[in-house]
Amino acid sequence: RFRFLAAPRGASSSKLNMRPSQQKLALASLGALGLVGFVFFGTTPPGPASIRQLQIASALEPPLLDAFAACGKLAERVDRWGPRLRWRSLASPRHGALAITFDDLHPRSWQKAAALLEAAGGRGTYYVQTEGLRSGDVPLLQALADRGHELGHHSYGHTNAAERLQSETETARYLSDEIARGCTAFRSVGLPMPIGFSYPFGAWSPRSNEVLLEHFFMLRGTTGFTHPVLYKQGAFALQRFVQAIWFDSAAVDNSTVVDGLLRDVAESNARVAIFAHDVCDVEHETCGSPLFIKKAMLENIVRTCKKLGIALVTASELMRLDE
């Protein structure tokens, strides 16, 4: 019924042809070198990813280059050391984990989702499209971050990354127009720099993942409710990409079906992400967007997760549960 994705085959340490004691010594040595680089230089020695980053960034205008470099450096630090410092301490769950995420820019209605999650001991992830960011949105978004929720990057102008990230020229333009410009918007209003990116339209490709994982800790794509993807424990050990299930009311509006999915998550101890856009109490208000999840449905999801023991985590926490 569901597709289960695990860590890629053939990527285990046994391929190194080293004894366990040798593997531990090598990993310890690399870790020590990385820590020295972080403490004294603020980053690690340039590798292939950072060299490519510099090549692409050299084509950007100076103000965008500055923002792009800041975003890239943050992703690099978070990838290696940030998880030990920034996120909640979470034990590996025994009954599954769910990351509830939201896209676009609905900071006022997102407060409803945040309150529901907080009451259940969870936190959410909110991917911000920055083109329409207004001064009144900033305090609402900052309040989410201050309460432990995660803010992510959803591009500047909601442009399709899979279509744009094909040639080197188009890649440089996309990183300038959509990624660096969005980072500039975050920084200019004092919001925390994003460590995750959700694809506009859910459109991704292997190349887009390769390019954008050089600049973000994790990426989120999408899949329909009719083809949900549940991830096995440990699936994110060698990847930082998750496909979230579409949960707007236009996609699923049946609590019985949703409860069945969540029971499968709990019984298989799976890791899963879902996404919606606006949050609307349809009995008392008119939704500002045609894409929304009903507040009653969200309440049911949170209540069922709490009952079944499913951990409610942010998208980046989902990547780290089994470390």
How would you characterize the overall build of this protein?
The structure is a single chain. The protein is α/β, with parallel strands linked by helices and 323 residues long. It is 45% helix and 15% strand. The strands form three sheets. Strands 2, 3, 4, 5, 6, 8, 9 and 12 form an eight-stranded parallel β-sheet that branches. Strands 1-7 form a two-stranded parallel sheet. Helix 5 (107-119) links the parallel strand 2 (97-102) and strand 3 (125-128). The chain starts with a strand and ends with a helix.
Poorly predicted runs are 1-27, 29-59, 80-85
| Quaternary structure | single chain
The 3D shape can be described as globular
Secondary-structure content class: alpha/beta
Let me know the number of strands. 12
Estimated share of beta-strand residues: 15-25%
Total count of helical runs of at least 4 residues: 12
Radius of gyration: 20 Å
Distance between the termini: 28 Å
SSE string: EHHHHEHEHEHHEHEEEHEEEHEH
Mean pLDDT: 80
Largest sheet: 8 strands, parallel
Helix content: 40-55%
